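User: I'm curious whether this sequence folds into something compact or stays loose and floppy. Could you predict its structure so I can see for myself?
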Amino acid sequence: MFTNQAHAATLTSWAASKHHPFIQALQAGTLPAATFRYYLIQDHHYLQEFATIHDLAADQATDSQAAHQLRAGAEHLRQGEMAVRETFFHQLAITDAEIAATPMAPTGYAYTSHLYRSLATLGTAGAVVALLPCYWLYAEIGHDLAHQGSPIPIYQAWIDTYNADDYAGEMPDQLALANRVATPQNTPALLDVFQKSSWYELHFWQMALDHETW
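Assistant: Here's the prediction. I'll summarize afterward.
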């Protein structure tokens, strides 16, 4: 299956993500609050584009089931993950004005540009596969961190988001969709897209640690 190939091709970068200093500090409770605030603002910018890609990919889909799943994914993002972020924003006094005044960092800009390019060049299949590492890697990180947890309540809440049944429960459908859109003809290109998204996931953590700016 395509997802087996994709997972095997990115074991090294995924392991680096799971053991990245950002993740280790979040789990240990030593991640500076300012760094988590920066991450949340940048992730907000990213998730806005992430949801838009779902809608655009659904518009191009010729498979009605894929279109329905993509639109449902966008809605779930807005009602679920992004809604949880609003609670975090309130707790950390992150205002709409601060978000608006903080531009998307170079790595986030490059990552979302990659998502749009994947849709533009490979259609719905490209978008589905480009989006998948974000879902899948976060589910694995949430599962791994749940065993130890974090002593900081807001970091624990972040972990819980990605280990929750409703989030993890979506993964079989996400994987099935990727396997459905992959064909022998487009698999090489889709594997490249998947690996690039995984690379950007790894560098998103470093972007947050560095408080990256233009």
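Summary: The chain has a mean pLDDT of 93. The radius of gyration is 17 Å.
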